[in-house]
Amino acid sequence: MGFFGFFNKDKKETLDKGLEKTKQSVFEKLTRAVAGKDKVDDEVLDDLEEVLVTSDVGVDTTLKIIKRIEQRVARDKYVSTSELNEILREEITALLEEYDNDNGNVNGNGNDPYVILVVGVNGVGKTTTIGKLAYQFKQQGKKVYLGAADTFRAAAVEQIVIWGERVGVPVIKQQMGSDPASVAFDTLSSAKANDADVVIIDTAGRLHNKVNLMNELKKIKDVMKKVIPDAPHEVLLVLDGSTGQNAFEQAKQFASVTQITSLAITKLDGTAKGGVVIGISDQLQVPVKYIGLGEGMEDLQEFNRREFVDSLFKN
Length: 315
Hints:
The protein has 315 residues and is α/β, with parallel strands linked by helices. It contains twelve helices and eight strands. Helix 5 runs antiparallel to helix 12 (305-312) and helix 10 packs parallel to helix 11 (276-284).
C-alpha cells in the first residue's frame, strides 16, 4: 500500500476524469485501427503501432509493446480484435511493473527525516508539486520542512514561501543568489534539530548549462550528507505531461546530469498526451511515483500502474 493510502473511489473518479482527453484520443484511433477486422493480424499491429506512437508512448516503448502482442498472437494462433483492449492493458501493466515503485521508506531511517530533492525545469509545475506533496504529507500527520534552494529566481523562493504559508509548514530560505547548497544545509540542519519527518528541497533547473547544473546538484548532495549521511533518499524529477515528446527530452537531459529515482508527471488532465507516462518510465527505467490531474490539493495522486492502465483502456 502506498503512503497516500488505498486507491479509493474519489481518487479513481479523479483519475478517470483526468485521463478523459487521452482516453478519447486513444479510443478513436483504436476504433479506426480495428474497423472491419475480426482478428489481430499484421495490418492491425501496424495500425496499433501508429496509435501508440501518436499517443506519445514513444517509438522504443511502442515497439516493445507490439513485440509482446505479436508473441501472444503467435502463441494463441487466433486473437480477436475485441480482445485487443484487454491484451493492451495486460501488456502495458506488465511493462510498467518491471520498474520498482518503492523509492524508500518515507517514515525515515531512525531519527533522521526522509529527504526528497526535487528537480525539473521552470514551468513544469515543480513548485506546485512540492506544495501539494507537503500538504499530503502533513495530512498524514507528518512534520514537513521545505527548502527554497532555487535561489536564482526570486519568484521561485516567493512561490515556495506562499505554499509553505498555505500548507502551514516552515520554509528555509536565504537571499536571492545565495549558494543553493547552503540553503539545503540549513534546511536539513533545522529539520533534523526539530524532529521533522520529511524534507523537500527545491532546486533550479537550468538545463541550458548542464555542467553548472551537474556541479550544483552534486554540491547540494555532498552538503546534505554532512547532516544526514544517506540523504537525499529520493531524487524526484517533475515533468509536464502536456509537452509530450519534449518531456521525454527533458527526462533524458536530467538523467544525464544526476541520478533520478522517481518521476512526477503533471498537467495530465488538460492533454491527450497521457501515453507519455508509459514511455518515460520505460525508457528511463525509473518509476513514475506521482501524477498531477488538476489544480486541487488532492489532485496530485500516487501513481497506481494498474489503475492508470485500466482507466486509459476502459470503455
